[in-house]
Design goal:
With 504 residues, this protein is mostly beta strands. It is built from 1 helix and 36 strands.
Length: 504
């Protein structure tokens, strides 16, 4: 005969990174609960709109360069500040005489002609957008005739629209023989366009004067049998429209050409915010897209975000916006999608995000999207009993169930996520060995989740008890024991059962 002790249920908690809940039925069945979990991921809706912000002006890099030569020699201009990739160099000047139906122009490759004269003086204007290996100099060709003078000047400029440098068609005047060359009127189309007036004349004039209202004057002259004077000046045109440069106010009489151009400034990139992805408990992947670079690649891009919604920031830095946090990457960014991981977020919190990008045209922001971080999963289970398991004193080879003992166990999911339950038994201390058959010191232990209609044998390894148990749901579990046919263990044996709960 085997005696069973009957005791009361007790529940103990301890925390070691995972919550463990132990319930013991003294002298009978011990239930141990373990769990693990991981967050779910979902996507918020995608919104494609994008917003472009205001234009900024083209700026001068270093001082205008100019130089002259005699005997028809070439002129080499060394930039005072090295251009960066994407900067534009505007070259102007030429020779005292028109040479064989062809103005000489730049010897350095890659320049595009804006204007070239068709008679004396041999005067023109050209531009080049700097590539990855930007030039440090530009060479203007002379005629090679020992009687001729040569003069060239150059501006290095930053912040223009590299895809469409000219804001409007250039205008020219000449050849005209008179004092004070006068560059013609043009009509700009973009706020902040840089108007540039140029002139070249067959006279040596060391002080040709200035153009009223214009700055960055660049004058030089060549002194040979045949002379040349060149000059240039700039004006930022804040408001698009007609611009008519004044004449140079102190230029001596000669045969001259004059040219007016306007450079289109870059604008801030066109940016869109796309749906967040990889949403976790405290992190997310923010997604954006630069739809248009505004004529110049972005040097910075990122996201602003906050737990509150805010209006479009406008042309301001992200750190000055109303959003409480921002991310930023620095580099050289063209059009296309980009993503940045945001960390340190709060769980179960709604966030508002905008993409942003910056170039010399300023800052622009995309549409605002919203997402909610995942709830931090809580896996919590309890077990209760409808009564004590009173197997009582049973003879060797006997069996008895908790149904007969009136002690059905109830297992409940007290967490906030679906859970899977797993179950296993073990050998007793004496020991009795757990198996599917009974024998000498060999016992069988079974469980049922349908009031005894179907019984499943326990093993010393975990097996499925129930899958996808919803939060706050419960199931009843019954047990049935088959004692060994004979045993050398005559003391009361504790028959332990462990149940593990994991996030589904």
């Amino acid at each position: 005969m085997i005696n069973r002790e009957v005791g009361k249920n007790s529940v103990n908690f301890c925390y070691t990174g995972r919550r463990i809940i132990n319930l013991a039925i003294a002298g009978a069945i011990i239930f141990a609960w373990l769990f693990s979990g991981w967050p779910r991921i979902w996507d918020s809706p995608q919104f494609p709109p994008r917003v472009r912000s205001a234009q900024a002006s083209v700026t001068l890099v270093g001082a205008p360069q100019k130089a002259s030569a005699i005997n028809g020699a070439n002129v080499t201009l060394t930039f005072s500040v090295a251009p960066s990739p994407g900067d534009i160099v505007v070259l102007y000047g030429g020779t005292s005489r028109y040479n064989s139906g062809n103005i000489e122009g730049p010897a350095t490759a890659g320049y595009t002609k804006i204007f070239g004269s068709s008679s004396t003086p041999g005067f023109g204007v050209w531009y080049k957008v700097m590539g990855a290996a930007a030039d440090l100099t530009v060479v203007g060709k002379g005629t090679g005739n020992t009687l001729d003078s040569t003069a060239y000047g150059a501006f290095v400029l930053h912040g223009f629209d590299a895809t469409q440098p000219l804001d409007c068609a250039a205008a020219s005047a000449g050849p005209t023989t008179s004092t004070n060359p006068n560059a013609p009127a043009i009509t700009t189309s973009t706020p902040g366009a840089l108007v540039m007036a140029f002139a070249g004349s067959t006279i040596r004039d060391t002080a040709p004067g200035t153009v009223s209202g214009y700055s960055n004057q660049g004058n030089t002259n060549g002194n040979d049998t045949y002379d040349i004077t060149i000059a240039a000046a700039t004006l930022e045109k804040a408001t698009p429209g007609l611009t008519n440069p004044a004449a140079w106010n102190a230029w001596s009489s000669g045969t001259w050409y004059a040219v007016t151009i306007a450079l289109r400034p870059a604008v801030a990139p066109a940016v869109g915010t796309q749906a967040a992805s990889n949403i976790g408990i405290a992190s997310v992947t923010a997604n954006g897209n630069i739809f248009g670079n505004g004529g110049e690649n972005a040097d910075r891009r990122g996201f602003v975000y906050d737990a509150a919604s805010h209006g479009l920031p406008g042309n301001i830095a992200p750190g000055s916006s109303e959003y409480s946090a921002y991310s930023e990457n620095a580099g050289n960014f063209g059009t296309g999608a980009y993503a940045i991981d945001l960390a340190g977020l709060s769980s179960n919190t709604t966030y508002y995000v905008r993409a942003w990008a910056h170039n010399s045209g300023g800052y622009s922001y995309g549409n605002e999207i919203v997402f909610t971080t995942n709830i931090e999963p809580v896996v919590s289970v309890t077990i209760t009993s409808s009564g004590n398991i009173a197997y009582g004193a049973l003879p060797a080879g006997a069996n008895k169930s908790t149904i007969e003992a009136g002690a059905t166990q109830t297992v409940k999911n007290n967490g906030n996520v679906e859970e899977d339950f797993f179950i296993k038994g073990r050998d007793t201390a004496c020991p009795w060995h757990l198996g599917e058959a009974v024998g000498v010191d060999l016992y069988r232990h079974e469980f049922s989740t349908n009031a005894g209609s179907i019984w499943n044998p326990l093993s010393v390894n975990y097996q499925s008890l129930a899958a996808g148990v919803a939060a706050e749901s419960a199931l009843n579990v019954d047990f049935r024991i088959f004692l060994p046919t004979s045993t050398g263990c005559y003391s009361t044996q504790a028959v332990d059962v462990s149940i593990l709960a994991a996030q589904h």
